[in-house]
Amino acid sequence: MGVRKGPSSSLSAAILAGVASSLIACAAPENRTAGSAADVAASPAPARPASRLRQEPPPADLGAVERYAWQTVIQLADAYASGDVDGFLGRVSRGFYRGYPALESGLRALVGNTTSRSAVVAVREVALDGDRVSVRTQWERTLVRRDGVPETKEGQTTFYFLKSDTSLRLLDFRGDVPFGIEGVPALP
Fold this sequence. Notes:
Layout: H1 9-27, H2 37-42, H3 64-82, H4 85-89, H5 100-112, E1 114-129, E2 132-145, E3 150-163, E4 168-175
């Protein structure tokens, strides 16, 4: 039975020295200015933290209007996350109590100042009251600003929709501003 020997000690030392040189070269900083385009392009995308919330479909026993309101909140979150300002605003009443122009301006600024967004919405309760439908939610959102800095925010918002002939439109909310959109005034 033969004994297999490893490489000679001088060969092992040479291999280890080569690996060490390679690692040192990878770790050495390049000659870049802080915040240059090369830094941003070379840096990996920030990892998205896993949400504690679970976004689920509406239960089968929910009424048609309540189910539609539930889905509309999820569609608002999806439009926010994809940066679809027109899709988001298409689900908002022009008579939005807190000012449609303020919401539009805040959303456009947020999308323009970020490179990516995500949102997870957990619906906690849906209620129908005359011409209004309320959807109580808990949400988490993450965004990455143009400078590469990630930001996470969470909140609890009750969305109020105005029931119309063909669709539900967001009329107002209570609690936290949906998805942390800045510039939406508080009600007196």
